[in-house]
Design brief:
It is built from 16 helices and no strands. The longest helix is centred in the N-terminal third of the chain and has 48 residues. 47% of the residues are buried.
Length: 444
């Protein structure tokens, strides 16, 4: 019974919702414990560790599903062993190098206050377990151990982290920013070790990559690296947005922006789920050349999320100050920032599953190029707007980046001969029905 709950989609969905709820409570507790200045430092440092851990896994996590399925046949055990070994060693080498660079920078950069120096140094040390966790949770998912994929990092770790913060506050003393960062790093490290040990019986023995397998490694990296750029924008957007805003805002402003961003992503989670549910129907209809079926699937992925996000914008306009007041008095005046961030989720809902459709065509390099452009736009907009407008400028940078990405994706989808799945094409215009809309995209 419990096993079926842990592996079933309904159980996993409930766990992810529960993890999001725990995360919301944790943000409130952190804001009240650390205050806006130290919370901003904590947000920036944890975002650095998360993004660097993701990047230094160099995309093996993104191709784990594909190559694990291909190589786990008994006749290809040698290839599966080579893939896992290469992923582990390449990820370890890159993450250790990144960790050393960050820690050395923290030690050598002058004029850093002690709290900032400690927090960022610990964040640097966290890059290695973060990279390990990214790779191993995806390997767990590829082998259908979905409980190990989601539960330790998505639910158990946030619950323990919240419990430790509450316990320290209640029974010992109010923890400092450095102590909270050490707790965070310790939990990430322990979680990475637990997941790795749990997977060991199901993975081949890890050995040094053989020289004759160098060509295979080059092939894996060639396929993986474009997916790093794609997933960096789609899977770790909150951390990337905070990291890109950090050079242009004060630590207190980073805390305000981070809280509003994380609240908006709770709203956006509903959009994400609706689009993911539509993907199988969209893929099946596309494979059959059934444009009517594609439209039905795309419309289902838009209607409820659009209604929900629009209501959320209205709710934030009316009750935003009260909601943000839960985090502390200094956050209550950021209602307009919250409204802007939640309005971004309306844009996301209006786009429908366009980005997913582009992935279905096999145009990974085009998708990666679009995400790279969106990342450049995000940084440039932060550079131009952040110093002048503070958290509101960072929020508008998100709007500019996300809207540009969505519009560019719609244009590329249409130029590939695919059916557009945004709200304008599905509800406000007569999109021509062509045979080209169900053809495969040209090979890249």
């Amino acid at each position: 019974m419990i096993k079926s709950l842990l592996t079933g989609s309904a159980g996993l969905f409930a766990m992810r919702i529960s993890g999001a709820g725990v995360g919301f409570l944790t943000q409130i507790m952190l804001a009240k414990t650390l205050g806006s200045h130290d919370l901003g430092i904590f947000y920036s440092a944890t975002s650095l560790a998360t993004v660097a851990g993701f990047v230094t896994s160099i995309g093996y996590s993104q191709i784990a599903y594909r190559f694990s399925a291909r190589y786990r046949d008994a006749s290809k055990a040698r290839l599966f062993k080579a893939f896992v070994s290469r992923a582990m060693f390449d990820g370890l080498a890159c993450s250790v190098a990144a960790a050393v660079l960050v820690v050395l920078a923290c030690m050598l950069v002058p004029d850093l206050d002690p709290t900032t120096r400690v927090v960022y140094a610990v964040a640097g040390a966290t890059i290695v377990p973060a990279a390990s966790l990214v790779l191993n949770t995806n390997l767990a998912g590829a082998m259908r151990f979905f409980g190990w994929c989601y539960v330790p990092d998505g639910l158990v770790r946030p619950i323990i982290f919240l419990g430790l913060i509450v316990g320290l506050e209640a029974f010992v003393r109010r923890p400092t920013g450095g102590e909270v960062m050490i707790l965070f790093s310790t939990l990430v490290t322990v979680t990475a070790l637990v997941v790795f040990r749990a997977l060991q019986p199901h993975l081949p023995a890890i050995t040094l990559p053989r020289p004759e397998e160098r060509r295979l490694g080059q092939r894996w990296r060639r396929e993986a690296l474009p997916l790093v750029l794609l997933s960096l924008y789609t899977n770790t957007f909150a951390d990337v947005a905070i990291l890109f805003a950090t050079p242009f805002l004060s630590q207190s402003d980073i805390a305000v922006f981070g809280v509003c961003l994380k609240l908006s992503l709770l709203v956006g989670y509903f959009v994400q789920i609706a689009q993911q549910i539509a993907i199988p129907d969209l893929a099946d209809a596309r494979g059959k050349g059934d444009q009517a079926g594609m439209r039905r699937a795309a419309r289902r992925s838009i209607l409820l999320p659009l209604a929900f996000t629009s209501a959320a914008v209205l709710g934030c306009f009316v009750l935003g100050r009260q909601v943000l007041g839960l985090f502390g008095a200094e956050f209550g005046m950021a209602r307009d920032v919250l409204v802007i961030m939640v309005a971004t989720q309306v844009v996301r809902a209006m786009a429908g599953p366009s980005a997913h459709l582009l992935t279905l065509t096999g145009a990974q390099r085009l998708n990666a190029a679009l995400c790279t452009g969106a990342l450049v736009a995000l940084f440039a907009a932060n550079w131009g707007l952040g110093p002048r407008f503070g958290p509101a400028g960072a929020a508008w940078a998100v709007v500019i980046s996300y809207t540009g990405w969505i519009v560019a994706t719609a244009v590329v989808v249409r130029r590939l001969g695919e059916m557009r799945t945004d709200v304008v094409a599905l509800f406000l215009s007569r999109q021509p029905v062509t045979v080209a809309a169900v053809r495969e995209a040209p090979a890249e």
